[in-house]
Amino acid sequence: MSRDQRIGTALSESVVGRVARTARDRLAATLPVTTAQRLERAVGRQLHTSRLYQWLTAEPDPTVVTIDLRETYTVGPVLRLLERLVTPIVARWKQSRLSDVTTALGDRGRRLAESSRVVRWLARLFVPPEPEDRSEDARDDR
User: The organism sits in which domain of life (predicted)?
Assistant: First the structure.
């Protein structure tokens, strides 16, 4: 199966593909046939030449090796163990009273910090400077 066929199959089975077909059909019903065809071809050309489309449909670089660490003998068991331990802990944490208390304390601390003069001064200190206007420099170089 060629790359274009795979993309066409994926697009035809996707929600985006269904929405695009519905929009095309409704547009074709309201416009003259030639206008709808020209519009469809123009949009298709724009999509196929877009950088996003090119990036999404590019063949993988053969020099790049991808390793799924979940399938390795050293990291895989550690990841599986972490997943078995962390998943129930997170579920219980979300339902716990301690979660509500720490969230409330965090919100209160944030409000307190926002009202602090020292925090406002530090925030102004760490704001990056405005970029210089390069247009004047370019005129001076001429």
Answer: Archaea
